[in-house]
Specification:
The protein is mostly helical. The protein contains 21 helices and no strands. The chain folds into two domains: about 250 residues, Ankyrin repeat-containing domain (Serine Threonine Protein Phosphatase 5, Tetratricopeptide repeat); about 160 residues, no CATH class. Helix 1 packs antiparallel against helix 2, helix 3 runs antiparallel to helix 4 and helix 8 packs parallel to helix 10. The chain is elongated. InterPro entries: Ankyrin_rpt, Ankyrin_rpt-contain_sf, PGG_dom.
Length: about 475
Amino acid sequence: MTSEAMSIVVDVTSVSNKVAQDENLNGSSSTSTDQDENIYEKIKKAAQDGDIERLYEMIAEDPNILDHFDRVPFCETPLHIAAEKGKTHFAMELMTLKPSLASKLNVSGFCPIHLALQNNHSRMVRGFVALDSSLVSIKGRGRVTPLHHVARMGDAELLSEFLFAYPSSIEDLTIKCETAVHVAVKNHQLMAFKVLLGWLKRVYKEEILEWKDEDGNTVFHIAASIYNTEMIKLLCKTAKLKAKNLDGKTAMDILQTYQSPCFPKGRRLLHSVKERLLSGSTTTLAEYLRKNLTFMEKRNKFLGMSNLSSIRERSLKNSKRNDAILVVAVLIVTATYQVGLSPPGGVWQESSSNPTTAKNVHHAGQMTMSFNMALFFLAFNGFAFLSSLYVIILLIIGLPMWKLIYGSVAVLSVAMLASYATIFPTRYSQLEGISAITFIMAFRLMIATMLCATFVAFTIDKCRRHRVDFPASCFCS
Protein backbone atom coordinates (compact mmCIF):
# COMPACT_ATOMS: atom_id res chain seq x y z
CA MET A 1 0.00 0.00 0.00
CA THR A 2 2.83 2.31 0.78
CA SER A 3 4.60 1.53 -2.49
CA GLU A 4 1.41 2.22 -4.52
CA ALA A 5 1.00 5.56 -2.77
CA MET A 6 4.56 6.48 -3.48
CA SER A 7 4.16 5.63 -7.20
CA ILE A 8 1.06 7.78 -7.42
CA VAL A 9 2.92 10.70 -5.82
CA VAL A 10 5.78 10.32 -8.29
CA ASP A 11 3.39 10.22 -11.27
CA VAL A 12 1.54 13.31 -10.11
CA THR A 13 4.81 15.14 -9.61
CA SER A 14 6.11 14.24 -13.07
CA VAL A 15 2.85 15.29 -14.69
CA SER A 16 2.83 18.60 -12.83
CA ASN A 17 6.43 19.22 -13.88
CA LYS A 18 5.57 18.48 -17.50
CA VAL A 19 2.57 20.81 -17.41
CA ALA A 20 4.75 23.49 -15.90
CA GLN A 21 7.30 23.02 -18.68
CA ASP A 22 4.58 23.24 -21.33
CA GLU A 23 3.24 26.39 -19.75
CA ASN A 24 6.71 27.91 -19.69
CA LEU A 25 7.26 26.92 -23.32
CA ASN A 26 3.92 28.36 -24.40
CA GLY A 27 4.63 31.47 -22.41
CA SER A 28 8.04 31.90 -24.00
CA SER A 29 6.65 31.30 -27.51
CA SER A 30 3.84 33.79 -26.96
CA THR A 31 6.38 36.22 -25.60
CA SER A 32 8.58 35.62 -28.67
CA THR A 33 5.59 36.18 -30.98
CA ASP A 34 4.73 39.39 -29.18
CA GLN A 35 8.33 40.53 -29.52
CA ASP A 36 8.34 39.73 -33.27
CA GLU A 37 5.09 41.64 -33.75
CA ASN A 38 6.53 44.52 -31.79
CA ILE A 39 9.69 44.57 -33.95
CA TYR A 40 7.65 44.50 -37.18
CA GLU A 41 5.47 47.36 -35.96
CA LYS A 42 8.56 49.36 -35.14
CA ILE A 43 10.17 48.83 -38.53
CA LYS A 44 6.92 49.68 -40.28
CA LYS A 45 6.69 52.85 -38.21
CA ALA A 46 10.28 53.70 -39.20
CA ALA A 47 9.35 53.15 -42.87
CA GLN A 48 6.34 55.45 -42.56
CA ASP A 49 8.50 58.16 -41.01
CA GLY A 50 11.50 57.51 -43.28
CA ASP A 51 13.71 57.18 -40.19
CA ILE A 52 16.99 55.67 -41.42
CA GLU A 53 18.68 55.98 -38.02
CA ARG A 54 15.94 53.97 -36.36
CA LEU A 55 16.28 51.34 -39.10
CA TYR A 56 19.95 50.76 -38.28
CA GLU A 57 19.18 50.67 -34.55
CA MET A 58 16.75 47.81 -35.13
CA ILE A 59 19.26 46.04 -37.37
CA ALA A 60 21.77 46.29 -34.50
CA GLU A 61 19.21 44.70 -32.16
CA ASP A 62 18.36 41.94 -34.66
CA PRO A 63 20.71 41.54 -37.66
CA ASN A 64 18.24 39.12 -39.29
CA ILE A 65 15.31 41.46 -39.07
CA LEU A 66 15.04 41.94 -42.86
CA ASP A 67 15.38 38.23 -43.58
CA HIS A 68 11.98 37.53 -42.05
CA PHE A 69 10.24 39.07 -45.09
CA ASP A 70 11.89 36.61 -47.49
CA ARG A 71 10.17 33.69 -45.80
CA VAL A 72 6.68 34.85 -46.79
CA PRO A 73 5.78 34.73 -50.52
CA PHE A 74 3.42 37.70 -50.38
CA CYS A 75 3.65 40.36 -47.71
CA GLU A 76 3.85 44.08 -47.16
CA THR A 77 7.48 44.92 -46.54
CA PRO A 78 8.93 48.16 -45.15
CA LEU A 79 9.93 48.99 -48.73
CA HIS A 80 6.28 48.84 -49.81
CA ILE A 81 5.38 51.25 -47.02
CA ALA A 82 8.22 53.64 -47.86
CA ALA A 83 7.30 53.55 -51.55
CA GLU A 84 3.67 54.33 -50.81
CA LYS A 85 4.52 57.16 -48.42
CA GLY A 86 7.15 58.65 -50.71
CA LYS A 87 10.13 58.22 -48.36
CA THR A 88 12.75 58.14 -51.11
CA HIS A 89 15.97 58.09 -49.09
CA PHE A 90 14.66 55.42 -46.73
CA ALA A 91 13.56 53.30 -49.71
CA MET A 92 16.96 53.64 -51.41
CA GLU A 93 18.76 52.69 -48.20
CA LEU A 94 16.50 49.70 -47.64
CA MET A 95 16.83 48.51 -51.22
CA THR A 96 20.61 48.71 -50.94
CA LEU A 97 20.57 46.61 -47.76
CA LYS A 98 18.06 44.06 -49.05
CA PRO A 99 17.67 44.14 -52.88
CA SER A 100 15.22 41.22 -52.88
CA LEU A 101 12.55 43.39 -51.24
CA ALA A 102 12.23 45.39 -54.48
CA SER A 103 10.74 42.39 -56.30
CA LYS A 104 8.47 41.23 -53.45
CA LEU A 105 4.73 41.35 -54.16
CA ASN A 106 2.30 42.42 -51.46
CA VAL A 107 -1.05 40.69 -50.94
CA SER A 108 -2.59 42.99 -53.58
CA GLY A 109 -0.07 41.90 -56.19
CA PHE A 110 2.06 45.05 -56.33
CA CYS A 111 5.80 45.63 -56.00
CA PRO A 112 7.22 48.74 -54.35
CA ILE A 113 7.85 50.40 -57.73
CA HIS A 114 4.19 49.88 -58.65
CA LEU A 115 3.12 51.65 -55.46
CA ALA A 116 5.55 54.50 -56.10
CA LEU A 117 4.10 54.95 -59.59
CA GLN A 118 0.51 54.81 -58.34
CA ASN A 119 1.28 57.59 -55.85
CA ASN A 120 3.22 59.72 -58.40
CA HIS A 121 6.58 59.48 -56.62
CA SER A 122 8.62 59.94 -59.81
CA ARG A 123 11.88 60.69 -58.01
CA MET A 124 11.68 57.42 -56.10
CA VAL A 125 10.83 55.52 -59.29
CA ARG A 126 13.90 56.90 -61.01
CA GLY A 127 15.97 55.89 -57.99
CA PHE A 128 14.63 52.33 -58.14
CA VAL A 129 15.46 52.05 -61.85
CA ALA A 130 18.93 53.53 -61.30
CA LEU A 131 19.68 50.80 -58.75
CA ASP A 132 18.08 47.96 -60.71
CA SER A 133 16.96 48.59 -64.31
CA SER A 134 15.22 45.19 -64.52
CA LEU A 135 12.45 46.59 -62.29
CA VAL A 136 11.07 48.27 -65.43
CA SER A 137 10.00 44.79 -66.56
CA ILE A 138 8.78 43.36 -63.23
CA LYS A 139 5.27 41.91 -63.41
CA GLY A 140 2.62 42.82 -60.90
CA ARG A 141 -1.10 42.27 -60.73
CA GLY A 142 -2.43 41.37 -64.17
CA ARG A 143 1.19 41.05 -65.40
CA VAL A 144 1.27 44.83 -65.59
CA THR A 145 4.82 46.21 -65.63
CA PRO A 146 5.92 49.74 -64.73
CA LEU A 147 6.28 50.36 -68.48
CA HIS A 148 2.61 49.48 -68.99
CA HIS A 149 1.63 51.77 -66.11
CA VAL A 150 3.60 54.73 -67.49
CA ALA A 151 2.16 54.14 -70.97
CA ARG A 152 -1.33 54.21 -69.48
CA MET A 153 -0.64 57.45 -67.58
CA GLY A 154 1.05 59.08 -70.60
CA ASP A 155 4.26 60.25 -68.90
CA ALA A 156 6.41 60.55 -72.04
CA GLU A 157 9.63 61.49 -70.22
CA LEU A 158 9.52 58.61 -67.76
CA LEU A 159 8.46 56.29 -70.57
CA SER A 160 11.55 57.26 -72.59
CA GLU A 161 13.82 56.66 -69.60
CA PHE A 162 12.28 53.23 -69.03
CA LEU A 163 12.85 52.20 -72.65
CA PHE A 164 16.51 53.15 -72.54
CA ALA A 165 17.02 51.58 -69.11
CA TYR A 166 15.55 48.20 -70.09
CA PRO A 167 14.91 47.91 -73.87
CA SER A 168 13.43 44.40 -73.83
CA SER A 169 10.53 45.61 -71.64
CA ILE A 170 8.77 46.74 -74.82
CA GLU A 171 7.99 43.06 -75.47
CA ASP A 172 6.28 42.42 -72.11
CA LEU A 173 2.62 41.38 -72.26
CA THR A 174 -0.20 41.76 -69.73
CA ILE A 175 -2.65 38.93 -69.04
CA LYS A 176 -4.72 40.43 -71.88
CA CYS A 177 -1.72 40.01 -74.22
CA GLU A 178 -1.31 43.79 -74.48
CA THR A 179 2.00 45.49 -75.10
CA ALA A 180 2.77 49.00 -73.85
CA VAL A 181 1.77 50.26 -77.31
CA HIS A 182 -1.68 48.66 -76.98
CA VAL A 183 -2.08 50.27 -73.56
CA ALA A 184 -1.04 53.75 -74.75
CA VAL A 185 -3.41 53.68 -77.72
CA LYS A 186 -6.32 52.27 -75.72
CA ASN A 187 -5.96 55.09 -73.17
CA HIS A 188 -5.72 57.85 -75.82
CA GLN A 189 -2.13 58.74 -74.85
CA LEU A 190 -0.91 60.26 -78.11
CA MET A 191 2.48 61.51 -76.84
CA ALA A 192 3.26 58.16 -75.22
CA PHE A 193 2.28 56.40 -78.45
CA LYS A 194 4.61 58.64 -80.49
CA VAL A 195 7.48 57.89 -78.10
CA LEU A 196 6.86 54.14 -78.38
CA LEU A 197 6.52 54.30 -82.16
CA GLY A 198 9.75 56.27 -82.47
CA TRP A 199 11.52 53.75 -80.24
CA LEU A 200 10.27 50.78 -82.30
CA LYS A 201 11.51 52.38 -85.51
CA ARG A 202 14.94 53.11 -84.04
CA VAL A 203 15.47 49.60 -82.68
CA TYR A 204 13.99 47.90 -85.79
CA LYS A 205 11.09 46.29 -83.94
CA GLU A 206 8.14 47.64 -85.91
CA GLU A 207 6.75 44.08 -86.00
CA ILE A 208 5.50 44.64 -82.43
CA LEU A 209 2.82 46.85 -83.99
CA GLU A 210 1.43 43.65 -85.54
CA TRP A 211 1.16 41.78 -82.23
CA LYS A 212 -2.40 40.99 -81.23
CA ASP A 213 -4.17 41.13 -77.88
CA GLU A 214 -6.57 38.52 -76.51
CA ASP A 215 -9.27 39.67 -78.97
CA GLY A 216 -6.93 39.49 -81.94
CA ASN A 217 -6.70 43.28 -82.20
CA THR A 218 -3.50 44.93 -83.35
CA VAL A 219 -2.60 48.49 -82.39
CA PHE A 220 -4.18 49.62 -85.65
CA HIS A 221 -7.49 47.93 -84.74
CA ILE A 222 -7.57 49.78 -81.42
CA ALA A 223 -6.70 53.13 -83.00
CA ALA A 224 -9.53 52.60 -85.48
CA SER A 225 -11.98 51.61 -82.72
CA ILE A 226 -11.35 54.85 -80.79
CA TYR A 227 -11.18 56.80 -84.09
CA ASN A 228 -7.96 58.62 -83.28
CA THR A 229 -7.15 60.07 -86.70
CA GLU A 230 -3.58 61.13 -85.84
CA MET A 231 -2.65 57.67 -84.60
CA ILE A 232 -4.28 56.14 -87.67
CA LYS A 233 -2.21 58.34 -89.99
CA LEU A 234 1.00 57.32 -88.24
CA LEU A 235 0.11 53.62 -88.33
CA CYS A 236 -0.93 53.60 -92.00
CA LYS A 237 2.75 53.81 -92.97
CA THR A 238 3.86 50.76 -90.98
CA ALA A 239 0.91 48.57 -89.94
CA LYS A 240 -0.82 45.85 -91.94
CA LEU A 241 -4.16 47.17 -93.11
CA LYS A 242 -5.64 43.74 -93.72
CA ALA A 243 -4.74 42.03 -90.45
CA LYS A 244 -7.93 40.53 -88.99
CA ASN A 245 -9.03 40.17 -85.39
CA LEU A 246 -10.92 37.21 -83.93
CA ASP A 247 -14.19 38.68 -85.27
CA GLY A 248 -12.77 38.57 -88.79
CA LYS A 249 -12.61 42.37 -89.06
CA THR A 250 -9.75 44.47 -90.35
CA ALA A 251 -8.96 47.92 -88.98
CA MET A 252 -10.48 49.40 -92.12
CA ASP A 253 -13.72 47.51 -91.40
CA ILE A 254 -13.84 49.03 -87.92
CA LEU A 255 -13.03 52.46 -89.29
CA GLN A 256 -15.84 52.08 -91.80
CA THR A 257 -18.43 52.39 -89.02
CA TYR A 258 -17.35 56.00 -88.48
CA GLN A 259 -17.80 57.02 -92.14
CA SER A 260 -20.71 58.98 -93.54
CA PRO A 261 -23.61 56.86 -94.83
CA CYS A 262 -23.70 58.88 -98.06
CA PHE A 263 -22.70 57.11 -101.30
CA PRO A 264 -22.23 53.68 -99.74
CA LYS A 265 -21.28 51.96 -103.02
CA GLY A 266 -18.64 54.54 -103.89
CA ARG A 267 -17.25 54.37 -100.38
CA ARG A 268 -17.00 50.57 -100.49
CA LEU A 269 -15.25 50.72 -103.84
CA LEU A 270 -12.74 53.27 -102.56
CA HIS A 271 -12.19 51.16 -99.47
CA SER A 272 -11.52 48.04 -101.57
CA VAL A 273 -9.13 49.81 -103.95
CA LYS A 274 -7.20 51.39 -101.05
CA GLU A 275 -6.69 48.01 -99.38
CA ARG A 276 -5.52 46.34 -102.57
CA LEU A 277 -3.07 49.10 -103.37
CA LEU A 278 -1.60 49.44 -99.91
CA SER A 279 -1.44 45.90 -98.65
CA GLY A 280 -2.63 43.31 -101.16
CA SER A 281 -4.33 40.10 -100.08
CA THR A 282 -3.37 38.43 -96.81
CA THR A 283 -3.11 34.75 -95.93
CA THR A 284 -3.42 32.90 -92.67
CA LEU A 285 -0.49 31.12 -91.05
CA ALA A 286 -2.00 27.75 -91.98
CA GLU A 287 -2.26 28.76 -95.65
CA TYR A 288 1.36 29.93 -95.59
CA LEU A 289 2.58 26.61 -94.18
CA ARG A 290 0.55 24.63 -96.73
CA LYS A 291 2.32 26.27 -99.69
CA ASN A 292 5.45 24.90 -101.31
CA LEU A 293 8.83 26.22 -100.23
CA THR A 294 10.01 29.39 -101.97
CA PHE A 295 13.49 29.74 -103.44
CA MET A 296 14.75 31.54 -100.32
CA GLU A 297 13.29 28.86 -98.04
CA LYS A 298 15.02 26.18 -100.12
CA ARG A 299 18.21 28.19 -99.75
CA ASN A 300 17.79 28.24 -95.97
CA LYS A 301 17.12 24.51 -95.94
CA PHE A 302 20.26 23.90 -98.01
CA LEU A 303 22.31 25.99 -95.58
CA GLY A 304 20.80 24.26 -92.54
CA MET A 305 18.80 27.31 -91.45
CA SER A 306 15.09 28.00 -91.03
CA ASN A 307 12.75 30.82 -91.95
CA LEU A 308 11.16 30.53 -88.51
CA SER A 309 13.07 32.78 -86.12
CA SER A 310 13.06 30.63 -82.98
CA ILE A 311 14.28 27.53 -84.85
CA ARG A 312 16.84 29.57 -86.75
CA GLU A 313 18.26 31.07 -83.58
CA ARG A 314 18.75 27.64 -82.06
CA SER A 315 20.45 26.30 -85.19
CA LEU A 316 22.81 29.25 -85.37
CA LYS A 317 23.76 28.80 -81.71
CA ASN A 318 24.48 25.12 -82.21
CA SER A 319 26.67 25.49 -85.31
CA LYS A 320 29.15 27.89 -86.85
CA ARG A 321 29.22 26.20 -90.22
CA ASN A 322 27.62 29.14 -92.02
CA ASP A 323 30.48 31.34 -90.87
CA ALA A 324 32.93 28.72 -92.10
CA ILE A 325 31.18 28.59 -95.49
CA LEU A 326 31.37 32.37 -95.76
CA VAL A 327 35.08 32.40 -94.93
CA VAL A 328 35.84 29.69 -97.53
CA ALA A 329 33.76 31.51 -100.17
CA VAL A 330 35.62 34.77 -99.50
CA LEU A 331 38.97 33.00 -99.82
CA ILE A 332 37.98 31.43 -103.15
CA VAL A 333 36.73 34.77 -104.49
CA THR A 334 39.98 36.43 -103.45
CA ALA A 335 42.14 33.74 -105.05
CA THR A 336 40.19 33.55 -108.30
CA TYR A 337 40.01 37.32 -108.67
CA GLN A 338 43.77 37.63 -108.12
CA VAL A 339 44.47 34.88 -110.67
CA GLY A 340 42.13 36.62 -113.11
CA LEU A 341 44.24 39.76 -112.86
CA SER A 342 47.58 37.91 -112.96
CA PRO A 343 47.11 34.67 -114.93
CA PRO A 344 49.75 31.89 -115.03
CA GLY A 345 52.54 32.73 -117.45
CA GLY A 346 51.77 36.40 -117.08
CA VAL A 347 50.72 38.82 -119.82
CA TRP A 348 52.53 40.43 -122.69
CA GLN A 349 54.26 43.63 -121.63
CA GLU A 350 54.16 45.16 -125.12
CA SER A 351 52.42 44.62 -128.41
CA SER A 352 54.08 42.59 -131.16
CA SER A 353 56.00 44.54 -133.79
CA ASN A 354 56.52 43.25 -137.36
CA PRO A 355 55.14 39.73 -136.67
CA THR A 356 56.42 37.12 -139.14
CA THR A 357 53.09 35.21 -139.12
CA ALA A 358 49.51 35.93 -138.12
CA LYS A 359 49.85 33.67 -135.08
CA ASN A 360 52.64 35.84 -133.68
CA VAL A 361 50.31 38.83 -133.30
CA HIS A 362 49.62 39.84 -129.71
CA HIS A 363 48.84 42.99 -127.75
CA ALA A 364 50.12 44.34 -124.45
CA GLY A 365 48.09 43.02 -121.48
CA GLN A 366 46.96 39.82 -123.21
CA MET A 367 47.74 36.37 -121.77
CA THR A 368 50.81 34.57 -123.03
CA MET A 369 48.90 31.26 -123.01
CA SER A 370 47.58 29.70 -126.17
CA PHE A 371 43.96 30.45 -126.95
CA ASN A 372 42.64 26.98 -126.08
CA MET A 373 44.49 26.84 -122.77
CA ALA A 374 43.37 30.37 -121.90
CA LEU A 375 39.74 29.51 -122.68
CA PHE A 376 39.76 26.47 -120.39
CA PHE A 377 41.56 28.37 -117.64
CA LEU A 378 39.23 31.38 -117.71
CA ALA A 379 36.13 29.17 -117.90
CA PHE A 380 36.99 27.19 -114.77
CA ASN A 381 38.37 30.20 -112.92
CA GLY A 382 35.26 32.23 -113.77
CA PHE A 383 32.96 29.43 -112.65
CA ALA A 384 34.73 29.19 -109.29
CA PHE A 385 34.61 32.98 -108.95
CA LEU A 386 30.88 33.33 -109.70
CA SER A 387 29.93 30.27 -107.62
CA SER A 388 31.68 31.68 -104.58
CA LEU A 389 30.11 35.09 -105.13
CA TYR A 390 26.71 33.41 -105.34
CA VAL A 391 27.27 31.65 -102.01
CA ILE A 392 28.24 35.00 -100.44
CA ILE A 393 25.06 36.62 -101.78
CA LEU A 394 22.91 33.78 -100.41
CA LEU A 395 24.49 34.14 -96.97
CA ILE A 396 24.37 37.93 -96.65
CA ILE A 397 21.02 38.72 -98.28
CA GLY A 398 18.59 40.03 -95.69
CA LEU A 399 21.30 40.98 -93.18
CA PRO A 400 21.91 44.60 -92.10
CA MET A 401 23.49 46.64 -94.94
CA TRP A 402 23.12 43.68 -97.31
CA LYS A 403 22.15 45.98 -100.18
CA LEU A 404 25.49 47.76 -99.99
CA ILE A 405 27.35 44.45 -100.04
CA TYR A 406 25.08 43.23 -102.85
CA GLY A 407 26.01 46.29 -104.92
CA SER A 408 29.70 45.73 -104.23
CA VAL A 409 29.40 42.13 -105.43
CA ALA A 410 27.75 43.33 -108.65
CA VAL A 411 30.52 45.84 -109.31
CA LEU A 412 33.19 43.22 -108.57
CA SER A 413 31.58 40.84 -111.07
CA VAL A 414 31.57 43.48 -113.80
CA ALA A 415 35.21 44.31 -113.04
CA MET A 416 36.14 40.64 -113.41
CA LEU A 417 34.30 40.50 -116.74
CA ALA A 418 36.25 43.53 -117.97
CA SER A 419 39.52 41.88 -116.88
CA TYR A 420 38.70 38.68 -118.77
CA ALA A 421 37.82 40.62 -121.92
CA THR A 422 41.14 42.49 -121.70
CA ILE A 423 43.53 39.58 -121.08
CA PHE A 424 41.90 37.18 -123.56
CA PRO A 425 44.48 36.15 -126.21
CA THR A 426 44.18 37.28 -129.80
CA ARG A 427 41.68 35.22 -131.83
CA TYR A 428 43.35 33.84 -134.95
CA SER A 429 40.44 31.97 -136.48
CA GLN A 430 36.70 32.44 -136.82
CA LEU A 431 36.04 29.50 -134.47
CA GLU A 432 38.24 31.05 -131.80
CA GLY A 433 36.45 34.37 -132.24
CA ILE A 434 33.04 32.72 -131.81
CA SER A 435 34.30 30.82 -128.76
CA ALA A 436 35.59 34.02 -127.16
CA ILE A 437 32.34 35.90 -127.81
CA THR A 438 30.31 32.96 -126.50
CA PHE A 439 32.40 32.85 -123.33
CA ILE A 440 32.05 36.59 -122.66
CA MET A 441 28.29 36.53 -123.31
CA ALA A 442 27.83 33.45 -121.11
CA PHE A 443 29.78 35.14 -118.32
CA ARG A 444 27.55 38.22 -118.59
CA LEU A 445 24.42 36.07 -118.53
CA MET A 446 25.62 34.22 -115.44
CA ILE A 447 26.31 37.50 -113.65
CA ALA A 448 22.88 38.90 -114.55
CA THR A 449 21.13 35.69 -113.52
CA MET A 450 23.03 35.47 -110.24
CA LEU A 451 22.22 39.06 -109.27
CA CYS A 452 18.70 39.52 -110.62
CA ALA A 453 17.26 36.10 -109.87
CA THR A 454 18.42 36.18 -106.26
CA PHE A 455 17.10 39.70 -105.70
CA VAL A 456 13.73 38.88 -107.28
CA ALA A 457 13.42 35.65 -105.28
CA PHE A 458 14.20 37.51 -102.04
CA THR A 459 11.65 40.22 -102.83
CA ILE A 460 8.92 37.69 -103.66
CA ASP A 461 9.62 35.72 -100.49
CA LYS A 462 9.56 38.87 -98.37
CA CYS A 463 6.23 39.98 -99.85
CA ARG A 464 4.79 36.52 -99.32
CA ARG A 465 5.79 36.50 -95.66
CA HIS A 466 4.53 40.05 -95.20
CA ARG A 467 1.06 38.98 -96.34
CA VAL A 468 0.81 36.39 -93.56
CA ASP A 469 -1.56 37.61 -90.85
CA PHE A 470 0.90 36.75 -88.11
CA PRO A 471 3.71 38.64 -86.29
CA ALA A 472 6.63 39.27 -88.64
CA SER A 473 9.05 38.54 -85.79
CA CYS A 474 8.31 34.85 -86.30
CA PHE A 475 9.96 34.95 -89.73
CA CYS A 476 13.54 35.59 -90.82
CA SER A 477 15.09 36.46 -94.16
